[in-house]
Structure formats: C-alpha cells, structure tokens
Design goal:
Helix content: under 10%
Structural class: mainly beta
Number of strands: 13
Largest sheet: 10 strands, antiparallel, barrel
Number of domains: 1
Low-confidence stretches: none
Strand content: over 45%
Distance between the termini: 26 Å
Mean pLDDT: 92
Length: about 190
C-alpha cells in the first residue's frame, strides 16, 4: 500500500468491531439492530449484483432493524450484507434490501449457533450502498458511499461499547443529533469467524 493509505481490515476484525448487535433509544422509540450470519442458496446468490472490480467471498450477514414504541413492534426491515474482495485485498460490504421474507425473531438471529436460512421466496435488491473496511491505527473503520437518491458518504466505527456514525453529503454533515448507539453483543453464529 502506498504511504497515507490505511491497511485493509481483516474479516475477523470487521465482524467483531462493526457487526455487534445494537440498541438505539430515542425518546419514545427503541430500535434493536440484530446481525446474524446467513447461508444463501445458489439461486439467491445469483440475484446479487456487484461491480466488476469486486469478487464475492460467499460470506453473508442478515441485518434486521426492529423499531418499538413502548413494547409494541412498529416496523421491521431486513437487509443482507454480502462481502467481497477488491483492489489491494480490501474487503467490501454490499447491501441488499430483502423482500419476500418474513422477519426473524430477534432471539433466533442472536442466539442461533447455525447460519440462518432465508426463505426461497426472498428477493434481493441492491440498496446502492457500499462499504469498505479499513484498519486505522488498530481501529476498524468503515468508509461508505450511497448512490441512491441524494448521494452521501459516511464514516463509521465502534469504540468503548458505542457505535459512531457520521453521514456527509455536499452540504456537510447531514445529522449531528443522531441518538447514541449501544453495542449489546455479538450474535452466537458470528463469534467463531
């Protein structure tokens, strides 16, 4: 790597630093984000599209965001992160919206020792969001880009059981009042990567 460019992060550090389950509390809303390793069928893998510079490594994480008001579930959204390798041996995460799949029980995602399986009816649509994972002085950092609607970039990392996220577009930082994100644990099936 040339001088001034960070090193590529390892898959182990990426998962352990950046894909821990999260709890976000903001006024009357509580958001639970749960990550779990997933297994895809060959037909499901064929739905995933990548830029020509990326080579998939067949490692997938399901990402479910459940929103609660008091104790009532308000909404649930499911995405898939597909990991690939690119130039300089950097690892990338491509995000896909999952439809045709009912939401998982949070305990099933967090406590399963086996990879979760998506229904055969699951359909994957690119969210036009791409992350690259860097090692910056021993901290695993995400540099991300979204090209959907109004493009933006973000910088993300974890530190002392908190997850930090800054989103930037051509007007500057988009939201400086993002509620604190607490890291709660790593799902069982992600602990032995």
């Amino acid at each position: 790597m040339s001088r001034g460019v960070p090193s590529a992060a390892t898959l182990y550090n990426i998962v352990n630093s950046l894909f821990q389950n999260e709890l976000i509390s903001d006024k009357d809303l509580r958001i639970v984000v749960t990550f779990s390793q997933a297994t895809l069928t060959e037909a499901q893998k064929a739905q995933l599209t990548y830029s020509k510079e990326l080579s998939p490594i067949n490692f997938y994480i399901v990402y479910q965001e459940d929103k609660f008001s008091c104790d009532d579930l308000v909404s649930s959204a499911l995405q898939l992160v597909s990991f690939s390798k690119g130039r300089g041996n950097f690892i990338y995460g491509s995000y896909f919206v999952v439809s045709g799949q009912k939401g998982f029980d949070i305990c099933e995602l967090s406590e399963s020792e086996c990879n979760v399986k998506l229904m055969d009816s699951a359909v994957f649509t690119s969210s036009k969001y791409l992350e690259v994972y860097n090692d910056v002085n021993g901290t695993t950092v995400i540099l991300a880009q979204s090209t959907l609607n109004k493009p933006y970039a973000s910088l993300q990392y974890s530190h002392q059981c908190r997850y930090y996220f800054e989103q930037l577009n051509d007007d500057g930082i988009i939201n400086t009042n993002i509620p604190k994100t607490e890291l709660t644990s790593l799902s069982q099936n992600l602990r032995n990567i």
